[in-house]
Design brief:
There is one protein chain. The chain has helices at residues 4-22, 47-70, 76-81. The chain is mainly alpha-helical.
Length: 83
């Protein structure tokens, strides 16, 4: 990818995708719900760990996608023209 806007957009899309996939991992529901809390609210959601994991995965994914595009390993233009 040549421009920074594309890199940022790919990173943000991947980050949200990985973060939303990580949200249900390791969730434990409290036995007794406190007043004013949903009965399905997790005890410890570990959001910082999940955000860090999503950031690392999004960085790796962005680097991989950038490499695939820069190395011309796959091109949507070629795929459409040959279709």
């Amino acid at each position: 990818m040549k421009d920074w806007v594309s890199i940022i957009v790919v990173f943000l899309l991947l980050w949200w995708w990985f973060f939303l996939m990580a949200l249900p991992i390791g969730v434990r529901v409290s036995e007794e719900a406190e007043e004013g809390h949903a009965s399905s609210a997790p005890k410890r959601p570990h959001l910082w760990k999940k955000a860090l994991g999503a950031t690392i995965a999004a960085i790796l994914g962005t680097v991989l996608i950038n490499y695939i595009i820069a190395a011309n390993l796959f091109s949507f233009r070629d795929a459409i023209q040959n279709w």
